[in-house]
Amino acid sequence: MTPLQPTLTVSTSSRSYPIFIQPGLLAQGGSILASLLPAKRAIVVADEAVWHRYGQVLADSLAAAEFSFHILTVAGGEGSKSYSQLEQLLERALALAPDRQTAVIAFGGGVIGDLAGFAASILLRGLPFVQIPTTLLAMVDSSVGGKTGINSPHGKNLIGSFYQPHAVLIDPTVLTTLPHRQLLAGYAEVVKYGLIADADFFAWLEHHGAAALKDKDLAKLSYIIEKSCAHKATIVGMDEREGGVRALLNFGHTLGHALEAALGYSDALLHGEGVAIGMVFATELSQHLGLIAPELSQQVVKRVRDHLTAVGLPIHHRHLPAAAQDSQSLLTLMAGDKKAVARRLTFVLLDALGHALVQRDVPSADVLALLAVGRVNG
Ligand code: NAD
Ligand code: GLY
Questions:
Q1: CATH class of 180-376
Q2: Which bound ligand lies closest to the C-alpha atom of 50?
Q3: Mutate to test the pocket of ligand 1, among 78, 80, 134 (most ligand atoms within 8 A of CB)
């Protein structure tokens, strides 16, 4: 049998690696990995719900390719990105006596990928790592680009490493069981690529996105995933460690992260929902600061709001619990964002639909004014 060709390749200074995207790919996981990894030994770190549904398919494919492997399950959800879960995972992995050629395979959403990737980066000073993402968010964003980590009581993703995987295997079929709210949250990151880098893709999403999500159309979802991964691969290839252009991937995240923090990273607001609200806010701020040509700006804001509303994503924080309503607290949280330098407000903004820039020193008065306007009219 001819080996499956990668759909995309990510080329960074620390590693180049393939991304495979194909419905039904999970059943070929073992044979693909056999030719990419240094040895047929693996520790699979799996989201326990995902393992329950899809573990047998992956296990059969690894066994057919003559891997010797162990499964370590971890609960999905943000709570697993913690010191205690990391410690338990490291100790459970070490009890299996891995050597430096034993791969860690993350099988789950962004939580499992971030946790297992960080563990892989520090176990024996670095084990080969594979991402098999099972949420839309993980397929289009977190599995590509090598950011790994856990949360600290001081904030989200503050402990971690840049550690690129050896391969990313994406089987869109597993999205059929993903709860719709989670699918939508991942879709916010898809829309982000259109807004910051690809106006034609955004226009395609305006026409096909809602149906792709509603019907869980695998052909359209595969296209969406491939386009998104291609954008992420290009940006990460230019700037692996976020010294420049990679910061644009944080479009919508300044307010989004502040809202998540205000709500204690709870189920009241999923990450992608915060990003959706943050993208609308950032587009309105771009208009307010005169960055978008005046004759276009109203239309750009309308298209962003209309598309996110059409698919069912939130566009304003006024419906969130009271903890997310205090503009002054949100401002303080935004000033502490990882992009901010010396607590000066920094936003990723648009100067056109499909083109973004990092704007430093955004006046807090403008941000406060817009938060207030949105509350009345948004
Ligand atoms: P998640 O991993 O918690 O998964 C969400 C839920 O979906 C979980 O309950 C999980 O059990 C369930 N699930 C997963 N796959 C399923 C499937 N196929 N069918 C049914 N249920 C399934 O959350 P997420 O949204 O995938 O990831 C969020 C995390 O990703 C956050 O911690 C965020 O910080 C991180 N993230 C990281 C990066 C990065 O570059 N590393 C980028 C974006 C987000
Ligand atoms: N999700 C943002 C990044 O990977 O840089």
A1: mainly alpha
A2: 1
A3: 134
